[in-house]
Design brief:
The complex is a heterodimer of chains A (about 500) and B (about 750).
Chain A lengths: L1 H24 L3 H12 L1 H9 L3 H24 L8 H16 L17 E5 L2 E11 L3 E2 L2 E2 L2 H5 L19 E8 L10 E10 L2 E8 L6 H11 L5 E4 L2 H15 L10 E4 L1 H8 L8 H8 L13 H11 L5 H26 L13 H13 L3 H13 L5 H14 L2 H17 L6 H13 L3 H17 L8 H23 L1
Parallel strand pairs in A: 5-8, 8-9
Antiparallel strand pairs in A: 1-2, 2-7, 3-4, 5-6, 6-7
Helix pairs in contact in A: 9-13, 13-14, 15-16, 16-17, 17-18, 18-19
Chain B lengths: L6 H9 L4 E7 L6 E3 L6 H9 L4 E3 H11 L4 E4 L7 H14 L4 E5 L3 H18 L5 E3 L6 H10 L2 E4 L1 H8 L7 H5 L1 E6 L7 H20 L5 E6 L5 H9 L4 E3 L9 E6 L3 E3 L4 E2 L2 H14 L4 E4 L3 H14 L9 E4 L5 H13 L4 E4 L14 E5 L5 H8 L9 E6 L4 H8 L1 H6 L12 H14 L2 E2 L10 H9 L3 E4 L2 E4 L18 E6 L7 E7 H7 L5 E4 L2 E9 L4 E6 L4 E21 L3 E21 L5 E6 L5 E12 L8 H23 L6 E6 L9 E6 L7 H7 L1 H14 L19 H10 L2
Parallel strand pairs in B: 4-9, 4-10, 5-7, 5-8, 6-7, 8-9, 11-18, 14-16, 14-17, 15-16, 17-18, 22-26
Antiparallel strand pairs in B: 1-11, 2-3, 12-13, 19-21, 20-21, 22-23, 24-25, 25-26, 27-28, 28-29, 28-30, 30-32, 31-32
Helix pairs in contact in B: 2-5, 3-4, 9-17, 11-12, 20-22, 20-23, 22-23
The chains are: A alpha+beta (about 500), B alpha/beta (about 750).
Chain lengths: ~500, ~750
């Protein structure tokens, strides 16, 4: 069979050579060289980058120490605090019995795991590791304090549009996976499952790690047992990623009858609704930095997590995994902080518990989102502020005007349109939506044909001006045609009238 | 036109044509039928009766009975013999009996899947039963995908979709895999060569997943006539098969005519161009409003014929009634053409072998082939496009000047008596196998003891562990890589990505008009190439090789382009050797490098070369298996120059004969000669598989060399030319008794 191998290696090397040659043809070597250089100097560059933030690093160190302290404390109370997950107590109990019976060192972790602070959980299905960090509710993560979480729990009930769970009995579970790949295919394995929940007077972050894909079954079994005690699942992009990935694992490991239908709060969706144009990216790490005052230092980017895990699988050295644990842990805390933020939004805390957004568009979009969540009464003050805001763009004004029109609030709609029309006159790339909307209003609502016609004609000028004399084609052409039709109709009506 | 002639009249006229060198009549056949079995559900029976089906043809009956007994079957039937009933009946019966049953239909192309869905849904509607059949392909909208996965009784898809979307996401298809009773593989004969080798591995993965979910589906395959349907089905599915070939469908009389264009230059044996004759014949039929299909071998040829015919009948018929059809047209365009043919709105179609497959275009009256399609099976498939159940049909094969065309038309017995070709696959091609083992490990962890075809794959798995693609723990290999392996594996061709053809004739209205595989693009879409699409000429303004895009602009010029490819071969390893009288035949691994060199501009009207320019594209390297002939004891009096030309001539003959004998596409196997091979310095002819790692074609040539040799000798000997012509050892041989010398060389091997 070694012949098979040899042939394979030869075939492979020829393909690699081919790729190199191709790269040469398209003049890529420069780019490749840069990449290599970057790879070599990666570590020092990183350090350098973080130098100016030495202060921040110290702070983080302090926080980590707090967490360590909490963990130490946990060691003594670990059995007592399993109330939230009764099954867990059962499993843990089983593990300890198992440990006690054969007192060989099979379940004892090698010393290099010590720094990471994990323990072995064993069941009949096998073993895996758990790292538990316990934060007192007084802990502050960015601008929010964990103690705010129990307060907003009720307000978060707004996400449960079907009303399936009694908000007073809500039991939130935060979830974030670190996986070996992208996408939701059957081969993408969650090697680390981060969970967090409130328990007594603490916020517990429980992170599971499989030392090997073979341990996954035990971890999934454990999850199946503990998940159903929670009523809400809180994630970031969990609807399209974390949950489907996890669900695959239940199927693959034969827990096909497992059923748990929590209220799933995927915070990516409201984040996008509110910040899509205000923030450059709606990635959690960006949102937390820009809006929750969270500064990470020494963070291992999530995108590196798979590579670190594969390296660990190859060399067995767990040390770099600590970075992944910490990254995931911060994610869990940020998720909680973000839930607090949205909880305040829904609970009417804008202006009191959380600051009023500075930017006009964010004000408006927060209002629109609240209205969609069934909190129209909370949206109105934001709209009012927006209408007064000096930085509102013509486009966003039209957005609110459109909303007002639907609600029959014509007064403000007309005001906004008029404002938007004025704003367009000074714009480099003028928007003429307001002209059209206003022309419609004058034509159909107040029957002021003359005013309507003037606006329509101005809209045509603006639209036509955009093309700078070029012959318009396709979509632009139909836009122009539509305006032209409107003008013709108005002229006709006027002549008849 | 008042005096429109009928087909029988035209057939009679054709009988007197001097160029017709063989006339073969296929007698009509009465239907052989049996009553619908009692076990068939009443709702199905009623639906069939309402559709005018009172009995089953014998093959349909046998298929139903065998599948009911739990046997895997392969049904071999000619075009339009009601083969779909062979699988639809048992599948619908099973679902009617047990609502939870599921079936997976695999068609080689999306178009066929669409056709099948419409047909199936008609029967289901007649039955009045709630059976859901869906197609699942790239066009399926995300909103209904969920419904397909959960509730589709019959899921209709293609191998590519199975490979890259369904299998890697099998956890979403639990209800299908848990209840899968049948896997239907239609157009089995198309799964050969590289594509077939890939699909065999995809099926291994499919069976693995079925096993995981506890199902063990029965395979129902259908195939056009090939020599080894049972063997192919067994290799492809890994299951024992029962062959069903008692075709009971009726057919009308068919006339199969071989037409050889007249000789215009006797000593050089140069004949009138087949294309010109085809144009003329097609015109005669189309003028009389007889629905005609013209097959041509290349895309370029399709476009050339199309534009000529459109020109010839312009005054009598609208250009819309004669259309082209080939790969590279967009799906919407193809659907429109298919429908036009069925409805009769389109009178004539010029097609590549794309219409060989069971795409439903109804039955036409006349089929004209521009040259021999390359294999017996393929010829019968194309011929099957003409012929209705009642009434006459005419098939005309117009021979080209290539050796094999001439051989076929002059030896009609070879064609009519011979069994069709073997369809070969090599699922054990290392590169293909490795790719699919990766996909398999991604889908489910791989046990050390697990089998994946006949090879012991443990060695490969260990290699993948070293490559850090897999991770091993105890007796199991786990996927341990960031990548999604299926996305890096294309089932269709050696080149992974196609070149997209972008028309930028109209600024601001840039659109994609087609695509082409990378290898063909090297010679057809290089900078300044003239590319023909739907009869319109485009010039390639820029081939962006790196991004796989060719930018073209419409032009109107009086020439086409023809590119040369320089090929160089190096031996890496010799696996087998057999000594011959004057040389040696070997088999092993070679490295082939190919680089396009220049292209010529050739005037359309006269065929003269009006200039050439270099092509700048990167070299392509290929490691593959090859069979080669070393001539160690050539007659020293021959001289190097002469010997070199003789080798070229023999290579030319092999190039035509080998694809016929091993049944593969012409582009799957290549033949090159070298006067001084790198490793020995000896005159050598290489025959290699045009796919990395090889797909077993060269292996076959090595094993059956005597057969290949005999066919080559026969071809040269029977060619009517005096001393070599394009139809045998090519035209560029000086007066030196080349034919005789070629034969001597061959006989010494």
């Amino acid at each position: 069979m070694s012949g098979l191998r040899d042939r394979l290696l030869r075939l492979r090397s020829s393909q690699a050579a081919q790729a190199e040659r191709m790269a040469g043809m398209v003049e890529r070597p420069a780019e490749a060289a840069v990449r290599d250089e970057y790879a070599q100097s990666n570590v020092p560059a990183h350090e350098h980058e973080h130098d100016p933030q030495a202060g921040a690093e110290d702070e983080a160190g302090a926080m980590a120490r707090t967490a360590d302290a909490a963990e130490l404390e946990l060691g003594t109370r670990s059995t007592a605090c399993s109330a939230a997950a009764p099954e867990k107590a059962h499993r843990a109990g089983e593990a300890s019995v198992y440990n006690a019976v054969d007192a060989d060192n099979e379940h004892e972790l090698p010393p290099e795991w010590g720094e990471i602070g994990v323990r072995v959980v064993a069941s009949t299905e096998g073993e895996f590791l758990v790292r538990e960090s316990r934060y007192p509710l007084a802990h502050r993560h960015g601008v929010h304090q964990l103690a705010e979480l129990p307060v907003v729990q009720r307000a978060l009930g707004a996400f449960d549009q079907a009303g399936s769970v009694d908000p007073d009995g809500a039991n939130l579970l935060f979830l974030d996976l670190e996986t070996t790949g992208l996408g939701v295919g059957a081969g993408n394995v969650p090697f680390m499952v981060g969970l967090a929940y409130l328990q007594e007077e603490a916020f517990v972050v429980e992170q599971m790690l499989i030392r090997h894909p073979a341990e996954e079954r035990a971890m999934i079994g454990y999850l199946c047992a503990m998940l159903p005690s929670f009523t809400h699942l809180v994630t970031y992009n969990g609807r399209t990623f974390d949950w489907p990935v996890l669900y695959n694992r239940f199927v693959l490991h034969g827990f096909r009858t497992f059923e748990w239908e929590p209220v799933h709060i995927d915070l990516l969706h409201p984040s996008r609704s509110i910040w899509r144009n205000t923030l450059v990216s709606c990635k959690l790490s960006h949102v937390e930095e820009e809006r929750l005052g969270i500064m990470r230092s020494d963070d291992v980017p999530g995108s590196l997590a798979p590579a670190i895990y594969f390296q660990y699988l190859t060399d067995g050295n767990p040390e770099p995994l600590l970075g992944v644990f910490k990254h995931n842990e911060t994610d869990m805390l940020s998720l909680a902080a973000l839930a607090i933020r949205f909880g305040h939004f829904l609970g009417g805390g804008v202006g009191t518990l959380v600051p009023v957004p500075n930017e006009a568009e964010e004000l408006l979009r927060t209002g629109l989102w609240l209205e969609r969540m069934g909190k129209a009464e909370l949206a109105e003050p934001l709209y009012a502020r927006f209408a007064e805001h000096s930085g509102a763009s013509a486009k966003t004004m039209c957005l609110l005007a459109e909303r007002d029109k639907k609600c029959g609030n014509w007064n403000r709609a007309v005001l906004l349109w008029q404002k938007a029309v004025r704003a367009s006159e000074d714009a480099v790339w003028p928007n003429y939506d307001a002209h059209i909307a206003l022309a419609m209003y004058y034509e159909h609502k107040t029957k002021e044909l003359e005013r309507a016609l003037l606006l329509a004609e101005r809209a045509f000028e603006l639209a036509d001006g955009r093309h700078g004399g070029l012959r318009p084609q396709g979509k632009r052409r139909t836009e122009l045609d539509l305006i032209r039709k409107r003008i013709d109709r108005l002229r006709l009506k006027r002549s008849k009238g | 036109m008042l005096n429109r002639k009928t087909l029988p009249e035209l057939i009679e006229e054709l009988r007197d044509n001097d160029n017709v060198i063989n006339w073969h009549e296929i007698e009509p056949q009465e239907a052989k039928a049996r009553p619908i079995p009692d076990s068939v559900d009443d709702r199905i029976r009623d639906a069939l009766v309402r559709r005018g089906i009172q009995e089953l043809y014998t093959h349909q009956h046998s298929a139903y009975e065998a599948v009911n007994k739990g046997e895997n079957i392969v049904a071999v039937t000619p075009t339009a013999s009601g083969k779909t009933m062979c699988y639809n009946l048992p599948v619908l019966q099973a679902i009617a009996t047990d609502e939870t049953s599921r079936a997976l239909y695999i068609f080689p192309t999306k178009a066929l899947a669409q056709d099948q869905k419409s047909e199936l849904n008609e029967i289901i509607a007649e039955m009045g039963v709630d059976i859901k059949s869906y197609t699942y392909d790239g066009d399926t909208s995300p909103t209904i995908r969920q419904a397909v996965r959960k509730a589709g009784h019959i899921v209709i898809t293609n191998p590519d979709m199975l490979h890259s979307a369904i299998l890697p996401h099998h956890t979403k298809w639990v209800s299908l895999f848990e209840n899968l009773k049948f896997i239907v593989v239609d157009e089995l004969h198309t799964y050969r060569g590289v594509f077939g080798s890939h699909v065999a591995n995809v099926i291994r993965r499919l069976k693995r997943i079925c096993k995981f979910y506890g199902s063990d589906p029965v395979f129902i395959c259908t195939s056009a006539t090939i020599a080894n349907p049972k063997e192919l089905a067994e290799r492809l599915t890994g299951n024992p098969m029962r062959l069903i070939d008692d075709n009971g469908a009726p057919r009308g009389r068919k006339h199969f005519v071989f037409y050889n264009p007249p000789i215009v230059n006797q000593p050089l044996n140069i004949r009138k161009s087949a294309t010109v004759e085809v144009n003329r014949l097609a015109r005669d039929f189309l003028r009389n409003k007889i629905q005609t299909i013209v097959f041509a071998r290349s895309r370029v040829r399709v476009e050339l014929i199309l534009s000529h015919i459109q020109e010839l009948v312009r005054n009598e018929l609208g250009s819309k009634s004669i259309r082209g059809y080939r790969g590279g047209y967009l799906p919407k365009q193809r659907r429109e053409i298919e429908k036009g043919l069925r409805d009769g709105d389109i009178l004539g179609v010029v097609s590549t072998n794309a219409l060989e497959l069971g795409v439903d275009i109804g039955q036409l009256q006349v089929c004209i082939m521009t040259g021999y399609p390359g294999s017996i099976a393929s010829t019968w498939q194309q011929a099957g496009r003409a012929g209705r159940r009642h009434g006459e049909a005419l098939i005309v094969m117009v021979a080209g000047s290539t050796p094999i065309d001439q051989y076929i038309v002059q030896n009609p017995d070879y064609f009519f008596d011979r069994t069709p070709e073997y369809a070969r696959i090599n699922p054990e091609n290392l590169l293909i196998l490795v790719d699919h083992l990766k996909c398999a490990a991604y889908e489910l962890p791989f046990k050390e003891t697990e089998a994946f075809g006949p090879l012991d794959v443990k060695d490969i798995m260990e290699y993948l562990v070293e490559e850090r693609v897999l991770n091993r723990n105890k007796d199991t290999y786990y996927w341990a890589n960031l990548a999604f392996p299926a996305s890096n594996v294309s089932l269709r061709s050696a080149s992974q990505e196609n070149v997209v053809i972008i028309d930028q004739s109209v600024t601001g209205d840039v659109k994609i008009i087609g695509e082409m595989d990378r290898f063909s693009a090297m010679t057809l879409l290089h900078d300044e190439a003239i590319y023909l699409h739907q009869g319109v000429q485009f010039q390639v303004e820029k081939l962006d090789w790196d991004h796989r895009k060719a930018y073209v602009r419409e032009v109107d010029v009086e020439y086409y382009t023809d590119a040369n490819l320089a090929v160089h071969t190096k031996v890496l390893e010799i696996d087998r050797t057999s000594a011959r009288k004057m040389g040696t035949i070997r088999y092993g691994d070679v490295s082939v490098t190919a680089i396009p060199t220049i292209y010529k501009k050739i005037r359309l009207s006269t065929g003269e070369n009006i200039g050439s320019s270099p092509i700048h594209l990167p070299e392509q390297e290929l490691h593959t298996s090859a069979a080669w002939l070393e001539i160690s004891e050539a007659d020293p009096q021959l001289g190097t120059k002469t010997l070199e030309q003789l080798l070229l001539g023999i290579a030319n003959v092999f190039n035509h004969i080998v694809p016929v004998l091993v049944m593969c596409d012409r582009s799957d196997v290549h033949v090159v000669s070298q006067i001084k091979a790198d490793h020995t310095g000896l005159p050598t002819i290489f025959i290699y598989d045009h796919y990395p790692g090889g797909i077993g074609l060269a292996d076959d040539v090595y094993k059956r060399f005597d057969e290949v040799k005999a066919a080559a000798i026969d071809l040269i000997r029977k060619c009517p030319c005096e001393d070599g012509c394009p139809s045998c050892i090519s035209s560029e041989i000086e007066g030196m008794n080349a034919k005789q010398k070629s034969l001597q060389l061959l006989e010494g091997l």
